[in-house]
Structure formats: structure tokens, C-alpha cells
Amino acid sequence: MKCKFIVVIGSISCIIVLLVGVILLFSPQIPFGLAVGYDVAVQGDYAYVSDNEGVNIFNINNPNNPIRIKEVRSPDGAFGICIEGNYLFIASDSDGFEIVNISNPENPTVLGTYNDGGSIYDVDVNGGVAYTLDLQLGLEILNITYPEQITKIGTYSDGGEYTSVLVRQNIGYIANPQVGLKVFNFTDPTSPSKLQTVSNTRGVRDLCIYESLLFLGCHANGVKIYNISNPISPQPLGSFIKSGGEVYGTTGNHTHLYVADLLLGTYVLNITDPTQPVELIYNENAAPHAITYDGEYLYLADQDRQLIILNSRLDAQFSGYLIPGFSYLIAIVGLLPIIIYKRPRN
Fold first, then answer.
1. In whole angstroms, what is the distance from residue 226 CA to residue 127 CA?
2. Do 195 and 262 belong together in one domain?
3. What is the model's pTM?
4. What are the pLDDT digits (tens) for 75-102?
């Protein structure tokens, strides 16, 4: 009798686990998950999130219920991404640099790749040229005029670890956490020249430009704001440090700066006077690696929940996404005991 009772309870438990797996499989809006988001870019009704399996594409027409529609696979993960026109540019690990046609986001097509053995961490594109940061090889400059025939045309390395790159016109800004912000002249991309390393910018990991403002995410050193009206000579305006934080991403405009902090979550600064940033709102329910803003909503690439969507007051519209593979795993775990169970003989 006791044996039968145990079998019944065990079977019920297995069925419950199976049902949970099935529910998770068909319900993308879940408080916690296992998908790590590294970077996020938004264009129109679509958000692109790099993670440890590639780049996921979401339809965000309804920000309360984004739908995952496609994935561009990168077996060892993708990191930095950027979009220009109909093209998505991916900095990935073992797959190197990739160009993807996203004119139809529901059917992305890889047009070209470049890989010389390194691991690409970030990328920016300007005027038919891609500026990629390789963790082992440094800055690599690629001619992408013909996406199917990518060629390397320039390099620069001083042994540092580069984490973020932005290029405007012929001036480039590169983040080096160990040293600080570096400014480059790319007038001749085949022969890049470093103009200066900006003082007091150690810890910088992330860069964001809005018109004549340059925002730096400086890890444990908070955020810094610079005027780049003279692009070759950034002038410091103001800074803000939130105790105990690790700033990984920034985005903003002339009045507000939105900050992604891996340890503290997300907060908004009033920078109407950029020399004296003032914290307005704080939301601790995230662990973001990156952040972007489309004028209405904030999109976070999150450590635990891949994609989080907030409104400008940091109220959650979408609180996280769980990778389907984990749901399948839960379902299988629930199903296996039922499959392998063999009723004992009387």
C-alpha cells in the first residue's frame, strides 16, 4: 500500500513538472530566466539582443508582449551589435564579424563574415567601413563595401583591452577600461592614428553619443559627460557616481541620461545642467549589460532575463524572457520519470 502511495505521489509530481515545462515553453513573459543578454539595438518594430547563442530578434510592436521571431546563431555567443539601414552587424566569438541582411527581420540572411582567429567584442560602422574590437588583436578596420567580400584594411593595437567603439565622421572613440577613453583619427582608415587618451576616464566600458554630448559608462567610476563640439578634444562637463555600482551602459539626450548598472539596476539622471546630474528615478529589478532608448521605451540587455522593456519612468512593460531550451529541459525532466517508470510485478 505504501509503495502504491509513493508511486502515485511521484507520478503526480512528474506530471506537474511536465506541465510547468509546457507552460514555460509557450509563455515568453517569465520573471526569471537563463538567457544572458549582452547588447541590444532597436529599429522600428524590432529589437535585436545578442546573447550566449547568437542574436535574437523580437517583434516589439506590443512592448508588453514582445514576440521572439528569429535567431541568428553564433555557437559561442555574440557580443556587440549595431544596425545601419537594412544591415545588422554582429561582433561574435568564434564566428568573428558578421553582416546580416535584416530587410525582412523574420528571415535574416547572413551575407558575409570575417574571422582571422580572434574574438570580436564590439563593432561600429561608418561610411562603408567597419571598426571592430578584437579581444586578442585589438582594433581591426574592415572594408565592407561588398558584404560578401570583407577585407581587412587597417589595424591598431597597443596591448590594451578594448570594450566599446564609436565612430563619427572621421573621429573614433574607443573605450579601454585599464587606461581610459582613446580618441582616434580615421581620416585614412588604412592608417589609424591615436590623437590622445582622455584623462580621468579609467574604467570606461561603454560609449554613447547624442549630438554634441558623449556619455561614458565607467564601471565602478559611474558615468561621465563630455562635450564633443570639438570632436578631437572632448571637454568634461559633469559626472555621477552611485555607490556600489558597476555601470555597463548609457543612453540619453540633452535632458535625461539613462544608466544600466549591472549591480544596481537602472536609473535616470536629470542632465538639464550637465555639470550637475541629479538622480530622478531608480529601478533595482534588473542586471543590465546594455541599454538603448527609442524615445518612448528603454530596452535592456539583461544578465538574467535577456530582454527587459521599461517606460521612461522605469515601469516594467516586459519583465523578462526565458530561452526555449530551458523550457524543453524542464518538460523533459518531468517526462523522463514517466517514460522510464516500470510498474513492479504483483
1. 24
2. yes
3. 0.84
4. 889 999 999 999 999 999 888 999 999 9
